[in-house]
Design brief:
Blueprint: E1 3-15, H1 26-32, H2 41-58, E2 62-68, H3 71-85, E3 89-93, E4 103-109, E5 114-115, E6 120-122, E7 125-126, E8 128-129, E9 133-139, E10 145-152, H4 160-185, E11 190-196, H5 204-209, E12 212-213, H6 216-221, E13 228-230, E14 243-245, E15 248-250, E16 253-258, H7 259-262, E17 270-278, E18 287-288, E19 293-294, E20 317-323
Parallel strand pairs: 1-2, 10-11, 12-13
Antiparallel strand pairs: 1-20, 2-4, 3-4, 5-9, 6-9, 7-8, 9-10, 11-16, 13-16, 14-15, 17-20, 18-19
Length: 324
Amino acid sequence: MPTTHRLFWWNLENLFDTVNSTNRSEKLQRTLNKELKGWTTAVLDKKITQLTKVIAQMNPDILGVCEVENRPVLDKLVNAMNAALNRTYAVLHQDTKDARGIDVAFIYDSQKYTPDGELYSLEVMRRNATRDIVQAQLKTAAGNVLVLLGNHWPARSDGKYESEPYRMMVGEVLSYWVKRIHEIQGKGASIVAMGDFNDEPFDRSLVDYAQSTHILKQIENSTTTDYLYNLSAACINGKLGTYVFGNEINMLDQFLVSKAIAVKTKLSKFSVAAPVRICHDFVPGMVKGEYNAPVKFGRPAEASTHNKDGFSDHLPIALTLEEK
């Protein structure tokens, strides 16, 4: 019988520590001072409660997350998850040099996986540091290794095309990193790249620079390029995405897998058991309006958008793998 692995990715939308946290550097405290006004312990606890409502329905084996400030807030979330699901989750996290102090991390069931090797955090620089690409390796009970690459690419806040070169740069780094993993571990490496890419599956940063494709034949026939198969391209239908800006539905959160997962060969240890799914229906009130916009939690400092019954401005996505 194959073993099933339930992987999820979720941008948690500004999961910050409390306004006067002693875990925050003085420089970062000055940067975040205004936007964290009113972000008290009670507000943080409510945010954790709202996130846990959704995660309890996921019941993940592995959960990749971004927009988390530090290890203490991750520990709060994991404690709530363990209580809700009666599982023993653990965290893989490393602080990065992001200007707002938000990081990428992995939460995993420590009864089902053991970390294999070091946690790598690949710093990406163009004038300023952006969020790192984070590599974690988890070994299953059968002794097979999943290589996880967590991504949170530069935002579109300065305009999609004005900021696009930054995402192209990170895409190029991701492609290089996948090639290096294959050089070290062989073509049978089981790689899952997940994240908020701040671009869509057909944008240049993902297609031309990260070397990802939604065409399976391209993966099957390639002997020279370390393509990633973009499983999230199939989710695009004009009705539901992971992020909504105005009346624009975007598929920014994605799963990409290596050839060894996408195409069943003698080297394959894992295969895709079910299509990627956008998780918009786990609890009532996750989305609203004709565009199915995620109901964000926001921050007290922006009173007009703060909703204590909200969750995140992104929707989670799910991927199920089977292990031989």
